[in-house]
Amino acid sequence: MLPSLTGTYASGLSASGPGDRDRPDAITVAGRSCSREDLAGAAGAVAARIAGAAAVAVRAEASLETVAAVVGGLLAGVPVVPVPPDSGPAERDHILRDSGAELLLRGAEAAEDTVPLPPGIRLLPVDTAERATWTAPEPESGSTALILYTSGTTGAPKGALLPRGALAADLDALAEVWEWTPEDTLAHGLPLFHVHGLVLGVLGALRVGSRLVHTGRPTPEAYAAAGGSLYFGVPTVWGRVVRDATAARALSGARVLVSGSAPLPAPVFRDLEALTGHRPVERYGMTETLITVSARAGGERRPGYVGSPLPGVRTRVVAEEGAEIGELQVTGETLFTGYLGRPEATADSFTDDGWFRTGDIAAVEPDGFHRIVGRASTDLIKSGGYRIGAGEVENALLDHPAVQEAAVVGSPHEDLGQQIVAYVVADGITERELTDHVAAHLSVHKRPRRVVFLDALPRNAMGKPQKKLLPPL
Ligand code: MLC
Ligand code: AMP
User: In this predicted structure, what is the pLDDT of residue 5?
Assistant: First the structure.
């Protein structure tokens, strides 16, 4: 029997933790703090206002309002749809319409939206000073807790339906393997609209009952000042930390540093060890599966490896005959239930015998340690830990009247892992105008870093564009 997710908040919010329910700085986000008691009251007030809605969207700034809104949705059993606060009108409209959200929740102080909301959606300001006690029974564990929009290789992002039971199972497995307890202080500054920052980074702390310090942005100085025992970061953040030796050394008193969302370069692993005394714990996951593979806090941490499957998760590598690397497939209690309104895409993402196809290429050592070798498709880009579909950036570029053809790829980048590069055939437009155009439609991190103008895209004899033949930068 899976633990209940509302139990998360009933127990997490009331857990005695390192202080008590009244500890005033149990939850700190971007410089503002509240107690578990305060959060329970504010989230209860949200729950009372949204109960019965089909789904609610949350403009997911790094703020206490976002935390109260998300927890309020979970208490009320209303699926929550986090919306990146920097998403342009096209991406925001897609998420709001596709999800069926009836309300858009956001802090009363948040900047005004410059574009109108789609019809039928009401704005609901969240005030963390409001209080209500929420006592309704726990929704069943198969019901949807979160709808997280995530990019595929082509087309607009799809809404991954994450059931309450999957979140609970994943967080409990992570707490076990990271030895995460109410005595910990979790510190990070990751965005609150993805699995890493929101599920692990907020719901994890609430479920475990540990303190949470969200630093607003994940800068090395902010990490150094956060006083955490457990730190989360994407490799770009850890790369920036090791380039700031003073900040890095300040983390030596922590218990565990965890890296995930993209491959941690081995030199960053070694620099972290040299500067902080910690070998980082690497873990692997996806929006659709949550975190499935991790090194253990009490076990070996090997550069270039993401550890072994979490309790309750099984993995297999499906390789061609004789090969040692192949597609990583996973099954277990942490999986999503499908893409909202996309039965075909959902069916395509599972094998006939019910395993989820990750699209990642992996190898497993005899001792069970997993190594992620790369992705099967080059059309999914990971930049700064963000997942970006080449197709959606190409579509945004093609939307511009000056652009005739576009091909988008990820190229290696020292800080971001990969950077977005757009090859375009276009007349009378500058690189800056094109990147601004993409940022205005999608979100800031989906902007190409480089734009290369070509006379024509390379094509094969059938006329199909050949990304492999694009000129290197
Ligand atoms: C960005 N900028 C640009 C630009 N792209 N300016 C001009 N042209 C472009 N093409 C701007 C940015 O808006 C920013 O401005 C400034 O340049 C610096 O950008 P940056 O280099 O990207 O840095 P930063 O904004 O600091 O972002 C780095 C980062 C961020 C690491 C903080 O990428 C991040 O938060 N990543 C985390 C992603 C994540 O959480 N993924 C988890 C997915 S879940 P300004 O004005 O804002 O400073 C998952 C499952 C799992 O993967 O396994 O965890
Ligand atoms: P997202 O859906 O945004 O969570 O992105 C999931 C993808 O991130 C996975 O399919 C992997 O390609 C990548 N990923 C996550 N964690 C790791 C890791 N530790 N090492 C390598 N790739 C990772």
Answer: 52
Structure tokens at 92: 């925001």
- What does DSSP assign to residue 26? S
The burial of 267, by beta-carbon neighbours within 10 Å (0-12 exposed, 13-18 middle, 19 or more buried), is given as exposed
Ligand 1 near 194 CB (within 6 A): yes
Site residues for ligand 2, CB cut-off 6 Å:
150, 195, 260-263, 282-287, 306, 358, 360, 372, 375, 382, 387
In the chain, the percentage of residues whose pLDDT exceeds 90 is 87
Q: How many Å lie between the centroid of ligand 2 and the Cα of residue 15?
A: 32
Which amino acid makes up residue 247?
A
Average pLDDT, stretch 100-129? 88
CATH fit for domain 380-469, picks 3.30.70.1060, 3.20.20.60, 3.20.20.140, 3.30.300.30? 3.30.300.30
1-28 per-position pLDDT tens digit: 223 454 554 455 544 444 467 899 999 9
pLDDT of 111 strictly over 50? yes
Ligand located closest to 373 CA: 2
Residues of the chain with CATH 3.30.300.30: 380-469
The 10 Å Cβ neighbour count of residue 255 is 17
The pTM for the full model equals 0.95
Quickly count helices (H) and strands (E) in the chain: 13, 25
C-alpha distance across the termini of the chain, in Å: 53
Fold exhibited by the domain 5-162: Rossmann fold (3.40.50)
Compute, in angstroms, the gap from residue 284 CA to the centroid of ligand 2.
6
115 confidence band (pLDDT: 50, 70, 90): confident
Q: What is the mean pLDDT of residues 346-358?
A: 98
- Predicted local distance difference test score (pLDDT) of residue 20: 62
Pairing of strands 338-339, 326-332: unpaired
Class of domain 185-334+366-375: alpha beta
Q: Which of 215, 236, 381 to mutate to test the pocket of ligand 1 (most atoms within 8 A of CB)?
A: 236
Question: Which residue has tokens 């960053």?
Answer: 268
Distance CA 132, CA 8 (A): 18
Residue 323's closest CA among 293, 364, 267, 376? Answer: 364
Please tell me the residue having the least CA distance from ligand 2 atom 15: 261
